[in-house]
Specification:
Aspartate Aminotransferase, domain 1; Aspartate Aminotransferase, domain 2; 5-stranded antiparallel sheet; 15 helices; binds pyridoxal-5'-phosphate; alpha/beta; 7-stranded mixed sheet; 378 residues
């Protein structure tokens, strides 16, 4: 399915274009799964209504409603994650209201102030593992009790989180219950929901998420689609005028069928979950292989993003062969790197990385094993 005879090309962040054995930088380096491209090619031979009113987008919405086991949710197909977050949050919040996110949350760290640019502050709370809890949110609410400050109104979580961790049903239930008690909306960013829902240890379903949140989105871009995120609005109070608001933000695609055909192909027969399982399987193979070498991890992440801790010298040598992100430098000289696998990651690339890591670790004399174990508890 994926042509690994061509070396991977370097991406933004490299000062010069370079050729790598493989890229583990993200899960959107490959285009789209062939079945989605075929569906798109076929739909392209027909005339389709514009702006998401076509038969493919309607079918995709039907399939998503079936998967969340609710026929009363609104589904809007949008192009990208930042766009979906900003369209949704700007629609859901009144001018004086703010969102709450983990300090590492995507809207707080990697969206160039997109939410703030819509007029809404993003209030952050520190977390160790990227996950929000009622206890973490409570002090922030207590500190925003008067009209001299913005009013926290929406809790933003992502599943999986920026650290590849996932929410259990009990954790999301606790958050949902707390939000309802405190008059807060709960919004879940599902850019990597496929990986989260198929990860080892997951006990959530799309139907649970629709019950526990007010709105969420299902990410296609990072799970085999060319582009596309499906915003699902559960709470009736949030549904009004959404098509106007989507259009006003420039987020309504004239050729909406590009999104509809892809989501239909993803949800018609389980391809969405199949692709996510593959990404997780490749990440697990990397994680287990590195653990066998005595490598520790910054965080215990069961999804398609892992954060091994490697001696700086090994990281430097691996960087000459593979593309990946440096995430965090540790005081003991090790560096946490982020390895991301995708729906298209070939097993041979994973095995090649492990073989190279083993060879380089031997040359560079890695940190002692006891150190690695201590770091895993970080
Ligand atoms: C959790 C999460 N939300 C949103 C986004 C933004 O998506 P996009 O790059 O399509 O705007 C990302 C991208 O990495 C993400 O990881």
């Amino acid at each position: 399915m994926y042509d690994d005879s061509m070396p991977a090309e370097g991406t933004a962040g490299d000062s010069e274009p370079r050729q790598y054995r493989h890229g583990f930088r993200n899960d959107y380096s490959e285009g789209a799964h062939p079945r989605l491209l075929q569906a798109l090619a076929q739909a392209s031979t027909q005339q389709n209504r514009g702006y998401g009113l076509d038969r493919h987008s309607r079918r995709a919405a039907e399939l998503i409603r079936a998967h969340v086991c609710r026929d009363d949710v609104d589904v809007h197909l949008l192009v990208g994650g930042t766009q979906t977050n900003l369209v949704a949050l700007a629609a859901f919040l009144r001018p004086h209201q703010a969102a709450i996110a983990a300090g590492s949350g995507h809207i707080a760290t990697h969206e160039t102030g997109a939410i703030e640019a819509t007029g809404h502050k993003v209030l952050t709370v520190p977390t160790d593992d990227g996950k929000l809890t009622p206890a973490a949110i409570a002090p922030l609410l207590d500190g925003h009790g008067s009209e001299h400050m913005v009013q926290p109104r929406l809790v933003y979580v992502s599943d999986s989180t920026e650290l590849g961790t996932i929410y259990t049903r009990a954790e999301l239930q606790a958050l949902s219950q707390y939000c309802r008690q405190r008059g807060l909306l709960l919004y879940l960013d599902g850019a990597r929901i496929g990986s989260a829902l198929t990860a080892t240890g997951n006990d959530l379903t799309l139907a649970d998420i629709a019950t526990l949140t007010d709105a969420f989105y299902i990410g296609g871009t990072k799970n085999g689609a060319l582009v596309g995120e499906a915003l699902v609005i559960v709470d009736d109070a949030l549904k009004a005028d959404m098509r106007y608001l989507v259009k006003q933000r420039g987020a309504m695609l004239a050729k909406g069928m590009v999104l509809g055909t892809q989501f239909t192909a993803l949800f018609e027969d389980g391809l969405f979950f199949e692709l996510a399982r593959h990404a997780n399987l490749m990440a697990a193979r990397l994680r287990e292989g590195l653990a066998r070498l005595g490598v520790g991890f910054l965080v215990d992440s069961p999804s398609n993003q892992i954060f091994p801790l490697l001696p700086a010298a090994v990281v430097e040598r691996l960087e000459a062969l593979y593309a990946f992100e440096r995430w965090q430098a540790l005081p003991d000289g090790r560096v946490a790197i982020r390895l991301v696998t995708s729906w298209a990651t070939p097993q041979a690339a994973v095995d090649g990385f492990l073989a190279d890591a083993q060879a380089l670790a031997a040359i560079a004399a890695p940190a002692p094993r006891a150190d690695a174990t201590a770091a895993m508890e970080h």
